[in-house]
Amino acid sequence: MLLTVLGTATPYPRPDDPCSGYLLQGEPSAHGGRTTVWIDAGTGTFAGLQRHVDLDRLDGIVISHRHADHSADLLVAYYALRFSEHRPSGPIPLIAPEGMLERLAAYLGPNSVDELPRVFEHRPMSGFGDARIGSLSLSWGPVQHGVPAFGLTVEEGGRRFAYSGDSAPCLSLEEIGERADLFLVEAGYDREPDGVPAHHTPEDAGRTATAAGAARLVLTHRAETVTGEQARARASAHFDGPIDVAVPGLALQV
Question: Residue span of the signal peptide, if any (predicted)?
Answer without folding.
Answer: none
